[in-house]
Write a structure and sequence with these properties.
Blueprint (H helix, E strand, L loop, with lengths): L2 H16 L5 E4 L5 E2 L2 E4 L5 E4 L5 E11 L5 E2 L20 E5 L8 E4 L1 H6 L13 E11 L4 E3 L16 E5 L5 H6 L7 E2 L3 H5 L6 H13 L8 H7 L2 E8 L2 E2 L14 E5 L8 E7 L12 E4 L6 E4 L7 E6 L6
Parallel strand pairs: 3-11, 6-12
Antiparallel strand pairs: 1-2, 1-4, 4-8, 5-7, 5-9, 9-10, 9-11, 13-14, 13-19, 15-16, 15-19, 16-17, 17-18
């Protein structure tokens, strides 16, 4: 056997000894199965399993993206050379051991665990809804390590799609699937691979990715202006301090789940878009106390209209996925 072949076989053996198994998951009373993603609601139970023979120790980790920071692939609109592609922004992650899971082959993931791992000074982390990533590593009695896909599989576009992603959604409809994008970093100029795979999203991209995930279809790459031109306008008006200049009624003029787009200058371009989420004060009228879900430049998050993010010339657009 040649020296090159011997070295190659040794390299492959070393690679397999340190990376050889994926985490299995089970929802409620269903059977365990493998796969890089799982969707469920908070009322459902999720079990994880890393069943490695002859394991001396097992460590479980949560991989948490830093959503408190701005990331960009292109220049922001307020920067010099706006919208110019500058290359893939590097997303920062932290790897946190879940000590209560130590040496367990099988475990039950709970909201309590996800809350205990809340990063400090990160307003955008949601422990109840959204996506969470996990890695497991076992040390065998021989000293070799077996691990699942994890932080070491980072690519230039962000975390590998092979890393186990657990996505909690509010409900199995469009609004619910959008909530599964909480905890995903905001990336200005995100590409379809990043958006659909929960690596990073922008304002229009997260809305389109939600539809693609929900219907298990290819992601259509639409920007804000394209959505405004393609979708039916439910209403067009001016908004100031979160107050429209015309009376608009929830469930009559528009519905929760419809989109809201804004251009900040009368003759400017539509620059931002979100999803109308909740009549927070239950008065049936669109006003400053109502809530929109939007991403960009931050991660997806709820915001009150009175915060001013949608002040300007506004259009409410019919969401085809909402009936």
């Amino acid at each position: 056997m040649s020296k090159k072949i011997t070295l190659f076989l040794l390299f492959m053996a070393l690679l397999q000894s340190s990376f050889a198994k994926e985490i299995s998951h089970k929802v409620d009373n269903k059977s365990f199965k493998q796969g890089s993603s799982v969707y469920l609601t908070p009322s459902q139970k999720l079990s994880l399993k890393f069943d490695v023979k002859n394991a001396k120790t097992i460590r479980w980790y949560q991989i948490i993206p830093d959503t408190s920071k701005f990331y960009k692939n292109a220049n922001h609109p307020w920067e010099k050379n706006p919208y110019k592609w500058i290359g893939f922004g590097k997303i920062e992650y932290q790897k946190v051991e879940i000590k209560s899971f130590r040496d367990k082959k099988e475990l039950l993931l709970t909201q309590k665990i996800l809350e205990e791992n809340r990063p400090k000074n990160n307003y955008f982390y949601n422990s109840h809804l959204g996506s969470f990533w996990f890695e497991a590593e076992a040390t065998l009695k021989s000293g070799k390590k077996v691990r699942s896909s994890g932080l070491k599989e980072m690519t230039y576009r962000g975390l590998s799609t092979k890393v186990l992603r657990v996505s909690y959604l509010k409900s199995y409809d469009y609004i619910g699937y959008l909530t599964s994008f909480f905890n995903v970093p905001g990336i200005f100029g995100s590409i379809p691979h990043q958006s659909k795979n929960y690596i990073g999203v922008d304002c229009a991209d997260v809305l389109m990715a939600t539809s693609a995930v929900m219907h298990k279809k290819k992601l259509k790459e639409y920007n804000v202006a394209m959505l405004v031109s393609q979708l039916k306008h439910q209403a067009d008006f001016k908004m100031n301090n979160g107050i429209p200049n015309k009376k608009l009624r929830w469930n009559k003029d528009f519905k929760a789940g419809d989109f809201i787009a804004v251009k900040y200058y009368k003759n400017g371009r539509y620059a931002h878009i979100g999803m109308l989420y909740k009549d927070a004060n239950n008065n049936g009228i669109l006003d400053k106390k109502d809530i929109v879900l939007n991403a960009g430049p931050n991660a997806l998050h709820p915001i009150l209209l009175k915060k001013g993010a949608f002040d300007g010339w506004v259009s409410i657009l019919k969401n085809r996925d909402v009936r």
